[in-house]
Amino acid sequence: MSEGTTYPARLDGRRAIVTGAGSGIGRAIALRFAGEGARVLVADVDVAAAGRVADEIGTNGLSHQVDVAHATEMQSLVERATAEWGGLDVMVNNAGVGVAATTPDTDESDWDRLMDINLKGTFLGMKYAIPALRDSGGGCVINISSVAALVGVADRAAYSAAKGGILALTRAAAIDHIAEGVRINCICPGTVDTPWVRRITEDLPEPEVARAAMRARQPHGRLVSVDEIAAMAAYLASDEAGSIVGAAMIVDGGLTAR
Ligand SMILES: NC(=O)c1ccc[n+]([C@@H]2O[C@H](COP(=O)([O-])OP(=O)(O)OC[C@H]3O[C@@H](n4cnc5c(N)ncnc54)[C@H](O)[C@@H]3O)[C@@H](O)[C@H]2O)c1
Fold first, then answer.
1. Domain presence at residue 7
2. pLDDT tier at 5, thresholds 50, 70, 90
3. Residue 197 within any structural domain of the chain
4. What distance in angstroms lies between residue 188's CA and the mean position of ligand 1's atoms?
5. How far apart are the CA of 179 and the centre of ligand 1, in A?
6. Could you report how far apart the first and last alpha carbons of the chain are, in Å?
7. Is residue 111 in a domain?
8. Is 7 a catalytic residue?
9. Model confidence at 3, in pLDDT bands (50, 70, 90)?
10. Residue-number span of the structural domain to which 51 is assigned
11. Domain holding 33: CATH number?
């Protein structure tokens, strides 16, 4: 969120949870939601990072430590929101990690960890949030998938499998719960300029060359910004997106149009 930017108050009074909100895309979504009037539970395994983002939000921000891969912790996360605010309107399942490897080169332990955080974490977020959304008179779930769910991306075998699973789960659950007033969608970002992407390139022998290659992969010639993903999330969370159900909203600078 740029300093001094004002947004429409489409989420006035809404109660939202954002996982992985201590950094990158999750942080931008939390700040944008708050900028549109929502109360936000900033959830992250890194509680210090979550606390900093909640402080940036101010009175409408609360921080909560959670490992999304653990059912009891995810249940407690949703219970915290309903205890604090008397209900829940929006659940954003954003927390995720990456493993860069082909299928034969992926360690079984890396596969398990990635599936636990990215796919099971999203499942658990939905498992506990959907009843709370239903009990609150309806609401929405936004899952963060990836273009890796839609096209083949080199060296991302396990990651692509998890993100494809999130897309399929989004569609299945969307059909199950729309009649209950719970709208479920996902966002498929291209390469987004976040601390994660900066970490990947820093470890390479020529970081700036790697970053230039990432920019070139995007037809619009630059990385997607976190604010562009946050804008899509705020739209999906708003009443303006009332007919968007089980959709994969692609925000990728044209990568999948090639
Ligand atoms: N950056 C990209 O190019 C890109 C593209 C497509 C999709 N995504 C997805 O967007 C999401 C956010 O990515 P980002 O780039 O902002 O990453 P990031 O590393 O900047 O932020 C991820 C956050 O998730 C938290 N987290 C990690 N494991 C967790 C766990 N087990 N429980 C709770 N929190 C946990 C981290 O502490 C961190 O704050 C991920 O799901 C990622 O797959 C990112």
1. no
2. confident
3. no
4. 13
5. 31
6. 30
7. no
8. no
9. low
10. 15-99+120-145+165-189+224-243
11. 3.40.50.720
**CB of 189 closer than 6 angstroms to any ligand 1 atom:** yes
Kindly report, residue by residue over 93-132, the tens digit of the pLDDT: 999 999 999 999 999 999 999 999 999 999 999 999 999 9
Which of 194, 215, 227, when mutated, tests ligand 1's pocket best, judged by the most ligand atoms within 8 Å of its CB?
194
pLDDT of residue 72: 98
Give me the catalytic one of 7, 128, 159, 235. 159
* Mean pLDDT confidence for 245-253: 98
Whether residue 2 has pLDDT greater than 60? no
Query: Does residue 51 have its Cβ closer than 6 Å to ligand 1?
Result: no
Q: Mean of the pLDDT values across residues 173-197?
A: 96
Per-residue pLDDT, averaged over 210-230, amounts to 93
DSSP run (H or E) holding 189: strand 182-189
Based on the structure, what is the number of domains in the chain? 1
pTM over cut 0.85: yes
Structure tokens at 42: 């900033």
> What values do phi and psi take at 59, rounded to 5?
-65, -25
- Mean pLDDT value of segment 156-165: 98
Question: For the chain, where are the alpha helices, taking DSSP H only?
Answer: 24-35, 47-57, 71-85, 108-114, 121-135, 157-177, 195-202, 207-217, 226-237
154 domain residue, yes or no:
no
Gap between the Cα atoms of 194 and 200, Å rounded: 10
For the CA of 117, the nearest atom of ligand 1: 31
